[in-house]
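Protein in question filed below.

…
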Amino acid sequence: MRLCDLSATKSMVWQEYEKQIELSNSNNTVSKLVREFIDSADFCELAMNTQKDYVKYSKKILAAFGPMQSDKVQPKHVRQFMDILGQKSPVQANRHKAFLSRTYRWAFERGKVASNPCTGVKQFKETPRDRYVEDYEYQAVFNTACAVVKAAMEISYLCMARKADVVKLHKSQLLEQGIYIKQGKTGKKQIKEWGPRLRAAVTFAKAESARVESMYVLQQKNGSPFALASFDQRWRKAVIKARLETELPLDFTFHDLKAKGISDFEGTTAEKQRASGHKSESQISIYDRKVQVVPTVESKK
């Protein structure tokens, strides 16, 4: 690249050189860093749900930090961002910080930044959800739900599976031994063994969709799978209807059904971990929510 004419003085050359260096550095923004990370092989190796979440989180990160020089972002800026976002949702503030930290960690390892500004910034305390769905509550919503939601409830509960893994279930995943599920979040591969109730749920779902040929167990009228937002609408409709009919609060989420499955599973913590596909026993403690009945001094005698 030519800086200036051959007739330029030494001071003019240095002046132009410094200008070009400054211009080059101005392109090292957080916006560029985020874009490079999302385009990277490391990002592509993440679970699909994690990728979608990170893209969602990037919007607020770019709105706050996008034009800033990547090496100019300091822990105090991250703290300020979290405090503002944390006023409405501490959990979301933590998730956004995790994405920003992941981006900087990736960049630091490749010499793109000098440090990670998220290091040392304390997250908000998160209280693990402990809502256990009682059998009568489950049945109340089940009774008012449409066929799709009924089948999804049963599969999620019996297989201890996440909503995203149930809603997109392929008929090719229905094997002789059971239902093959590769967890979208952890990548864990399992075959959930058949039982009478699980077979009945799948048979019911397939019968309801027999009018249109489709590769999905749960399908829309045209044979296409449900978007999560569309499925959520059906779930909310069932819950609202059940509340009106029973006058019960029914303040649980669809994700709580997985926790109910783990809680109701008869076995040790290690057996629950193996059946649910979690990576550690500590994660099981979050999902095992049924209040335990323990002996008293007199009942033990």
About this structure: The chain has a mean pLDDT of 89. The CA atoms of residues 142 and 234 lie 12 Å apart. Residues 23-109 form a domain with the DNA polymerase; domain 1 fold (CATH 1.10.150). The radius of gyration is 26 Å.
